[in-house]
Amino acid sequence: MSDKKPSVLEGFKAFLLRGNVIDLAVAVVIGAAFTNIVNAVVKGVINPLVGAFGTKDLDAYSSCLKAPCEVGPDGEMQGIQIMWGSVLGATLQFLITAAVVYFLMVLPMSKYLARRAAAQKAREGVQETLEVTELEVLKEIRDALVAQRRTGSTAGDDSGPAGTPEPGVGR
Prior knowledge:
This protein has 171 residues and is mainly α. The protein has helices spanning 8-16, 19-51, 84-154, and strands spanning 63-71, 77-82.
């Protein structure tokens, strides 16, 4: 006998057809589309709110670490400038994305799964009760048959179980 090894192509096909890979691909595509929405919210809502206190563009906020922080005659920045506005903008985009994903996707899904698990647990409890009840009924039937057998044999009756005559006993 020879052990046939799966080909590389078969392994790749099995990898692609796994459910979690397809789910991950869908999540990446939806996440990319969702990024455009978040960017539009930051650009259309957050930046104007920040602009009420300063400049509308968060990327324009910066600090000078080493002077002079000026654009030189050749068009390059002189000195060392820290662009903390762009970091703030990226942080706001991340927080908005995380909040929307949590409140619109994660939280409802976890509540749904919790309700589903509770319903499943309740069904299992009912099934267990039915099984216990069935077991109790069978025990009662057994006990009744044993009691009937005992009362039948102690009353001087020469019959066996269920009223059938025992072999070797004449009437």
